[in-house]
Amino acid sequence: RIQILFETIGMVLKDCVRVFLFLINIITVLLGVAVTTIGILCITKAHSEPLKDIEHSTLVSFVAFLFVIGVFILVLGFIGCFGSITQSPRMMCLYMSLETVIMILEVAAVIGVLAYRTKIKSQADEGFEKYVKKIQ
Q: 33: how many CB neighbours lie within 10 A of its CB?
């Protein structure tokens, strides 16, 4: 009887984890759609008043970055949703591999920011001062 109880609890927990993973990835898909939409809106409104003061190369780089990140998040969320619904080991392995790559890139980004924080801060301060002077 205890073994049957543990098997039942295990099956229920497995289904709960699967549903939770699906819901998290639905949120990820929506986030990917939102970031991609922001990228597309920035492309279409590139010559509007608030964005006119930004250098064209900087704006294009930022918009391209937004678009690529949005599409990547969208695809990642879709792979996670599809993998959790179908319980495909290959799809879940691909999903976890992409998540691992993202974590490694995040650690590398943090190390890069910490290594160059004084340069980043000085460039940000300089850019902010230029923008404030243009406004005045």
A: 15
The phi, psi pair for 45, rounded to 5°, reads -105, 25
How many angstroms separate the CA atoms of 72 and 56, rounded?
24
Q: Which residue has the tokens 């940000």?
A: 124
Q: Does pTM surpass 0.70?
A: no
Task: Extract the tokens encoding 83.
Answer: 């993998």
| Cβ-based neighbour number of residue 55 at 10 Å | 8
- Whose CA is closest to 98, among 77, 112, 81, 113? 77
DSSP string, 24-92: HHHHHHHHHHHHHHHHHHHHHTTTSTTTTTS-HHHHHHHHHHHHHHHHHHHHHHHHHHHHHHHT-HHHH
For 34-63, write each residue's pLDDT tens digit: 888 887 887 777 656 555 655 666 667 777
